[in-house]
Amino acid sequence: MPYAVAALLPKLRLPPAIGAGYAMAALTGDLYMHYAAFLRPRSSTAALGLLLMPLWNLVLIGPIGAASAWGWQRLRILCSPPR
């Protein structure tokens, strides 16, 4: 679901960079959870994170990535030299 939201963001007439930031943040969260559950589990319930990670990506991590991409894009526009 988080990746579907990231794919739909440009359809809402938002810049594609915002969708890319959302998707990259969600992918980073998924990769960390894979690492924490399969490579370095700290407890027997570490695999439960695999069930909850899509929700965290949808509600928290993805929007933070989208906001970061938006801020980075605004900063790049403001700091670019005039033509």
Task: Kindly describe this structure.
There is one protein chain. The protein starts with a helix and ends with a helix. It is mainly alpha-helical. The mean pLDDT is 93. The protein has three helices and no strands.
Task: Describe the protein's topology.
Blueprint: H1 2-8, H2 16-39, H3 48-79
Helix pairs in contact: 1-2, 2-3
Q: What's a quick, concise take on this entry?
A:
With 83 residues, this protein is an all-alpha fold. The protein is elongated and about 60 Å long.
Largest sheet: none
Number of DSSP helical runs: 3
Briefly note the structural class of the backbone: mainly alpha
Approximate helicity band: over 70%
Coarse shape: elongated
Rg over CA atoms, rounded to whole Å, is 16 Å
Low-confidence regions: none
Highlighted features:
83 residues, mainly alpha, 3 helices, 0% strand, elongated
